[in-house]
Design a protein that fits this description.
alpha/beta; Rossmann fold; six-stranded parallel sheet; 6 strands; globular
Length: 176
C-alpha cells in the first residue's frame, strides 16, 4: 500500500482516524506505530504538535527519530570525528527530548532515537525496521517549482518507502 497525504494544521483531518484504517497493521502488539522524524525546523515542531493533538487518547505509539547526517570527506576533519559525532548526538537528543516531552504531556506512548546516516534512507529503513504504520513529517510551504528543483527529504521518503506518509505543512506566519 502506498499513499501520501498533506495535512494542514487547521483542517478537520484527524490522525486518529488514520489509525482506524485496517491496512495500518501496527507492530507485533497490534498497536499502530507512527514514525515521527524530526529536525530543528519549525515545520518539525508543527508536526510534533499535530501528532500530539490528534493522537492523544488513542492506542497509537510514536517513534521519534532524529537523523544526523555525517558526510565528512575532508581528511583534516576526520581526526575530529568522535567529538563531532558526540556533539551531533547531543544535538539530536535535545531535539528528541523536546518532542518526547510534548508527547508525554499528551499521554502518548513514545520512544526516541538519534541515528546517523543519509536522512531519507535512514528514515525509510527505520520505518521498516520498527514496523511503522505511518510516517508523519513536517514540511514547509514552498512553491512547487522550487520543491521540484531543490528536492526535499519528504519527497525522497515518499518515493522510497512502502509506508504511507502524512506531510504536515507549516506555513510561516500562520498559527496552528
Amino acid at each position: 500500500m502506498y499513499f501520501s497525504a498533506l495535512a494542514h494544521p487547521d483542517t478537520s483531518s484527524h490522525l486518529r482516524h488514520l489509525f482506524d484504517v485496517p491496512a495500518l497493521s501496527g507492530d507485533r502488539t497490534g498497536a499502530p506505530t507512527l514514525l515521527l522524524p524530526i529536525d530543528a525546523s519549525i515545520a518539525s515542531e508543527h508536526a510534533v504538535d499535530y501528532v500530539a493533538r490528534n493522537l492523544a487518547g488513542t492506542a497509537g505509539r510514536v517513534h521519534v527519530l532524529n537523523v544526523q547526517q555525517s558526510d565528512i570527506d575532508d581528511p583534516e576533519l576526520l581526526h575530529a570525528m568522535p567529538a563531532l559525532a558526540a556533539a551531533q548526538r547531543k544535538a539530536g537528543q535535545r531535539l528528541t527530548c523536546k518532542a518526547a516531552l510534548r508527547l508525554a504531556a499528551a499521554r502518548i506512548q513514545h520512544r526516541s532515537r538519534v541515528a546517523f546516516g543519509h536522512v531519507a534512507e535512514t528514515i525509510v529503513r527505520e520505518a521498516e525496521e520498527q514496523r511503522c504504520s505511518l510516517i508523519v513529517m513536517g514540511t514547509r510551504a514552498r512553491h512547487q517549482a522550487m520543491e521540484l528543483l531543490a528536492g526535499s527529504i519528504p519527497r525522497r521518503v515518499i518515493r522510497m518507502t512502502p509506508v504511507p506518509v502524512l506531510l504536515v505543512r507549516h506555513q510561516p506566519g500562520r498559527q496552528g
